[in-house]
Each structure stands twice: as structure tokens, then as C-alpha cells.
Amino acid sequence: MEKVSLAEAIGKIRSEQSVFVHGGSATPRALLAELWKQSSRLVDVELIHLHTLEAVPTIDAGFRKSFKVTHLFVGANWRPHLDYDRIDYLPCFLSEIPNLFRSGIKPIDVALLHLSPPDEQGYCSLGTSVDVARAAFDAAKVVIAQINPKMPNVQGDGQIHQSEIDYWVEINESLPEAKTAELSEIEKKIGHHAASIIENGSCLQVGIGAVPDSVLAALSGHRHLGIHTELWSDGVLNLIRAGAVDNSKKVVHPGKTVSTFIMGSQNVYDYIGNNPSVICLGADYVNNPIVIASNPQVAAINSAVEIDLTGQICADSVGHRVISGVGGQMDFMRGAALSAGGKPIIVLSARTKRGESRIVSALKPGAGVVTTRAHVHWVVTEYGKVNLQGMSLHERAKALIQLSHPEDREKLEREWSNIHRG
Question: pTM, whole model, 2 decimals?
Fold first, then answer.
């Protein structure tokens, strides 16, 4: 392991190489800032990453000459810049991305990582984001790391010995925090309906955002909940501190809060550091439906952009415009369905902020189906909940119309009738 300056570290990157960038709250912002500075000497460097939290550089002709960007998940900061040419999106289940790297289907020349300082045995940690970063580290020919005392040492698959790092730079900066917003009355109603179908002792998968937060807030009175999830944040920490989560009923990693990555406030980062009850593992393991299904009573809580009257879920795009990614929704929806007493749950508001119905007779042209109608079970809006499992298409349409905004129901009934008549 050789300590170098930022300029020297990024100077190791050459034109036409593929570069993995650590994501989430582990985004190596110092390394990226230097990469943007050196862009004029580079041509056709491919950047591969999940969502990153750094400020996006100026996207001009010079940037497009220097870089290609392959998104495995599109964050809000990159959405306006997608052109499906130089800045593109690669759809893939999160559980399968590590194999893209390890198999060489998507080769990695250089990995830019954000690590905790080495412990007494010389091990650093990938900290808040193990997800696909562990596989990228395993596959990379060159590893460049920024080592930061503010990055918590998290137990699990993210342990990397300092001897396995080629070049490193020293930084000292706080991690970016994910802010929580005040819940609306609609979100609170959604949370109440979803919580009413989740039993004590359930094992939760839940994401980040207002609607997932509303479900977590409504679960504070539950007991013996477990966590085996792709991601967790402050909402889960609140449940742990309220005594609702103790991971005691889990079969896989009992007593442990399990995820692939973590984003939250500084309170979360303080809690997870050197905490033996928290482990971060690779996405190919955590998101494996067989592993997920091994825990009983898995409640997988996921959101949607829109759902059609047969149950098809669009979750990664608005029409042709990609706004996120396939992620782990299908991994957990299927895993929960196979779990003893499990419940795959889709939560969404009946309308968008613009007043458009999210329950539609047909998905927008170009909309991607992330979760098929055969995989969907529970659907929840502020107007109630329904289990579509075992329902015919006509029964599904009738049930979903009742979950839509009252002002949209007559139109949906008319559209479904026209579809039914052919």
C-alpha cells in the first residue's frame, strides 16, 4: 500500500480504462474532484457506478470526450444528463451485478473506494456501502482508496487488508447525510395501512424515502421485528431504539441487522461503527431470493412509479425516461413470496404530486416493467390495501380501482371496460 497525493493517485488512471466508483454515502468525492481536474488528459474512460452523491461535473463536449458513464442505478443528480449514448443505464438485478464484475462480463480496471482507516490487524472497511463494491474490489486490477477517519468500520464482507490496496490518499471529511422529511397525511395513511398487514416477528426489507419512512414510523409498536434489507436509514434506527427491532426471530443471521449499504444521518453512522450487531454483506448474498426466503415472515416493502390495472409495476422510469434502476425490488418481492408467511408489499400514493393517477389502465409508452403482475401480491395506497394473489385480471382491476383516488375511479372503470371489450 503506497500513500500518494490526490494528483498522483488519479494519475494512475489511463485512457480507455473502466473505473468503478464507490457509491452512496461512500462516494469518494475527493478522488472524483481530482478526476474531473485531470479530465483533459483522458479519453474514453468508462465510469461504472450505482448512485453517487457527489456534485455532477459540467457535462459538456469535453466531458463526453473524456468519459463514458454506465449507471447501474440512476440518482437524481445524474437523471438530467442521461443521453443513452455517452451517459447510459445498464438494467440488472442488484443481486446479479457482482457477477458482472467477477465474471468479466463487465471488466473493472480500476476501483475508486472510500475506506475506514486500518484497524490493529491492518483491515480497512468499505464502511457504509459493500453492495457491489466488494465484487468491484475483487475484480479490479488496481485499487485506489481515500481513507477517512469519519468512515465507520462496519463488520461483514467489507473488510479489506491494507496490503491489498495499491494506492491511497488521506482525507478527513464528514459523510454526506440523507435527510428525512416531515411525513404528509397521505404518507401517514399509507404507512398505517401497510403496518396493519405486518405481523410481530416479521423480517423487514424497506428502502429510503417518505413512503417507506411512513411504514417504519407506523411499526414502532410492533415487537421482535428483524432487518434483512438492501438499504436502511434513520427509520430503522428509530425502530431499534424503540425496541421494535431485535432480530430475534430471524433464521439467517439472528441478532444482526443485515444490509448491503446504509445511508442516513450522522446518528446512523455513529451507531454502525464497530457495532457487532450490524453487518454489511455483498448484494449477491443479501439480495439472493433463496437467502431472503430462508427467513420466515419476510415483509418486503417497495414503491412504484405506477401500476396498471393488471398489476404490472413500473418502478424505474417515467415512460422512456429512466429515473432510478431495477435495483433489488424483484429480488425481495420474489424472496418474500417464497418465505414462510412472507408478504411482498407495493406501497404508493394514489396520485403523483401533479395530480396524475399512479393507478392506470395502461403503463406509459416506454415504461419498464420491473415487477411483473405474476409477482405482485399486496398493494397499498392511502385508500386501503388489497392482496392480488389468486385474483383474475378482472378481479384485480376492480380491486385496484378501489385503491385509486375517488375522482379517478369512473375514468379507470370506463377504460377497463373498453379494454375488456377489445
Answer: 0.96
